[in-house]
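Subject: Interface between my chains keeps coming out wrong

I've been trying for a while to get a sensible model of this assembly. When I model each chain on its own everything looks fine, but I need the whole thing in one frame so I can look at the contacts. Pasting all components below, labels as-is. Any help appreciated, I'm running out of ideas.
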Amino acid sequence: MSQAAPDVILLENISKFYGEVLGVNKVSLSIPTGITSLVGPNGSGKTTLMNLMAGLLQPTRGRIVVCGVEPSDPERFFRIAGYATQYDGFPRGLTGWQFVHCYLRLFGFSPADTERMAWEAIGRVGLRDAATRKIAGFSKGMRQRIKLAQAIAHRPKVLILDEPLNGLDPLARAETIALFKQLGTEGSHVLISSHILHEVDLISDQVIMMSQGYVVAEGQIRGVRNEISDQPMQILIRCDKPEYLASKLFQQEHVVEAKIHPDRGGLLIRTRHAESFYKFMNHIALNGVQIESVAPADEDAQSVYEYLIGHEESTR
Amino acid sequence: MAVYKRSYRAYNGPLTDPLWRFMVLQRYALKGVFRSRMLLIGYIACFFFPVMALCLLYLNQNAGILAQINSKPNFVKVDGNFFLVFLQVQGILAGLVTAFVGPSLVAPDLTNGALPLYLSRPISRTEYIAGKGMVLGSLIASITLIPALLLFSVQSSLVGYAWFSENLFVANGILWISLLLMTLLILLGLAMSAWVRWRIVAGALVLGVFVAGKGFAAVINAAMRTETGDYLDLQHLLGTIGGNLLHHVAEDEPVPLYAAWIAILAFCGILLMLINRKLKVCEAAG
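Reply #2:
Try treating it as a single job with all components included. I did that and got this:
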């Protein structure tokens, strides 16, 4: 059994079965601080993994240590962890402020600290004006935000948020993402699950991709993309002579495809060997082609998801 | 959105005593209970009989007023039997309050998904039961234990130390009967609320088990030509225990004292098991 670093979420060979149904299987992860996104299709095991990390489920096998605390020790664990499920769960009849206040009091904070911390959390999610209204009258987005306020109110080191961006309007979404980024840079763990892949790119310091109960990839998107060797890398080049560049690139063995961009201001190429391609580009740049930019076109969660899970999804 | 320029730091201020944190639940739940005007009126009505009893005790010792109506002091005998009747009447009212309040305690938390949030350890399920139970406990105590002890104190002050020392067992009896009644009704209210989400049905079940138990017992006794039906009559069982504690001698008691205790405790155990079973699934692993 390995020694868990105090700032890391460690999952060692975690499996969870619901009778004979697989929840997650043989998951081993070491998650550093920052924003980590769990990505995968419905039923891939994201919520199960989150519930396991939050101690709401007991693993069938394996061990979880969150910043030095095991979720099976809930009294200590929920001091350092905040959790918001994807489903609404509010005691009946409470206002937004009472909801956050009530749980802080149950955590044992003094009345003065509770008051201050409740308003602080509500302020951070931008609900000050609506806080004294009943939650029953809140919109979906407001309910998402008050759940988030409740999860962050006791200043947890680890935030586990299941689909936290669902139902938020674009402005609230941008504000919430900014809040996640802020929490991430402050040194907290922010674990979120999401279906919206372009947001995962915006938010995440690292991603965990899941499919059918297994982790199929983990790490930073670029690192994950580089590991997918059977899919040629896509690179977008903005330049002044795309046709000339395409003819030159076709002479390279590692280049398998080159497409002129519809605006004729560049081209998209696919190469099996990125390093050779970049060396060649240095050579080309010295030969009179004005190159404006060279950027990977598939180093994003969407592409990686397609490569790793999209195929499995379509063959199911 | 406000932006705070600072790094993560955990809360390191003082915390309240973990022993009493469940009281937060009670405070929040009580606020909700008294939002119902009907309950508020019913609750106030529960004090009608104690006020009447208080007036009676006062009159009973007021020679001046009694002389005007040609009556003598101590025209009502204030002894264990007096308090037993008082507690029986207030006990039925406590049952009605439980039927009204009990179903709104656990069921909404289950229906609205709030229970897993509570039980992901701001508090444990024992504390949750204690917190919700305190709502019923405080209401029941305020219409049984507290008025009964108040009447006892008033009677002691009116009659004197001799009566007090002679009837100290009555205070002891009041305390035990009230605690037993409170425990039973709290567990009954919470169990029905946990298992029956339909408020009206849960309330009817509380009434059925507690208030209409006498009817069930009579039907069983008549149909089966037995007296075992009395074991289902919670009020009868409590009456047997109360009669013993308050030195009231029943002429023909079909349920022995020890059997009444066992039946009541077994019933409480079953109710506790039912509550525990429903709440355990919502609790964070521990």
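Reply #3:
Confirming on my end. Residues 1-6 of chain B have pLDDT under 50 and may be disordered.
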